[in-house]
Amino acid sequence: MRRNSRKLPKRRKKTRRWLRGTLMPESAPWDQLYGLRASIMGKMLSKVFGNKEMRILMLGLDAAGKTTILYKLKLGQSVTTIPTVGFNVETVTYKNVKFNVWDVGGQDKIRPLWRHYYTGTQGLIFVIDCADRDRIDEARQELHRIINDREMRDAIILIFANKQDLPDAMKPHEIQEKLGLTRIRDRNWYVQPSCANTGEGLCEGLMWLTSNYKS
């Protein structure tokens, strides 16, 4: 019995057809293929190594240096500021964390509005003018009012002991005592000496936030 010598056409593998039809049409140019592969790889890597986000509320008395700190971190340079009436918000990226920083004015008439910014806050930056000894008790009262609010109970606390370049500036250990931080046992807090104009200590503060941030 003679066999038909004509060869049957080979079936295309379903995987190959799916790849060609869905991911890469046969007519797709190489640059399109490269862009597609890069996009897929980027999404895969972002799931593993992607940036985290953290909502930061930056508060403190007026003239403590909050806005100067914000734009030193954002722009890498000192900017001329005016007293903040309302708020500034900027995104600052450090390491693999995107900090969404809300800088709210510190004048006494604005402070009752601070609580409207508490919801969702993961980290508090409280800025102290370390040369302003006359108002350190006022700063302590405001700090404890913030951290005792139920909306802020899970926020980690970074104190920027600012204006360390001034001759009569209080040192970090003195700030800890004046603010009553040493008596706080159930919260994660840290005092970082800083100088907003030069940027000294600012990245170290962000490093502490990054290390202590729990998503």
TrEMBL record:
Mg(2+) binds at T67, T84. CDD domains: Arf6. GTP binds at G60, L61, D62, A63, A64, G65, K66, T67, G106, N162, K163, Q164, D165. GO terms for cellular component: cleavage furrow; filopodium membrane; Flemming body; recycling endosome membrane; ruffle. One of its GO terms (biological process) is protein transport. Its main location: membrane. InterPro entries: Arf6, P-loop_NTPase, Small_GTP-bd, Small_GTPase_ARF, Small_GTPase_ARF/SAR. Pfam families: Arf. PROSITE patterns: ARF (PS51417). It comes from the Eukaryota. Keywords: GTP-binding, Lipoprotein, Magnesium, Metal-binding, Myristate, Nucleotide-binding, Protein transport, Transport. GO terms for molecular function: GTP binding; GTPase activity; metal ion binding. It is a lipid-anchor. It is found in: Cell projection, Filopodium membrane; Cell projection, Ruffle; Cleavage furrow; Midbody, Midbody ring. Belongs to the small GTPase superfamily. Arf family. This is ADP-ribosylation factor 6. The lineage of its organism: Eukaryota, Metazoa, Chordata, Craniata, Vertebrata.
